[in-house]
Amino acid sequence: MNNWLTWLPTANAVFNGLSFLCLTLGYLAIRAGHRQRHKRFMLSALGFSCLFLISYLVYHAQVGSVHFTGQGAIRLVYFTILTTHTVLAMVIVPMVGITLKRALGGRFDRHRRIARWTLPLWAYVSVTGVVIYLMLYHL
Hints:
By secondary structure, the chain is mainly alpha-helical. The protein has one domain. It is built from 5 helices and no strands. It has helices at residues 3-6, 8-31, 35-63, 73-104, 108-138. Helix 2 (8-31) runs antiparallel to helix 5. The radius of gyration is 16 Å and the shape is elongated.
């Protein structure tokens, strides 16, 4: 494997972790009434998620699938997390787009309605991305 490819899984986990951190800080900012800070954190979360996606696609285009080697109950745990992560990752992409479009368009009433669903799902996908990395590469 090319040297630069070996660090991409770690970079992917870092991008997911930073996305989760920005989502959390963005949520706290809006709860405190800091709209501009909220906007910066949420756009940063989106940026980190985009970096993750690019890095993920490059890695898997070069390496292919990486198989989980754990056995026993941990295998069931891993595939349960992987399945929910994968399904919700597909669902969250259009939700983030809609949520962002409503916010940038000043439709804050409609933005809030969908953001109540988008935020926890996006946070789950970000956190489980890190968990999958740890289980796949460090278990």
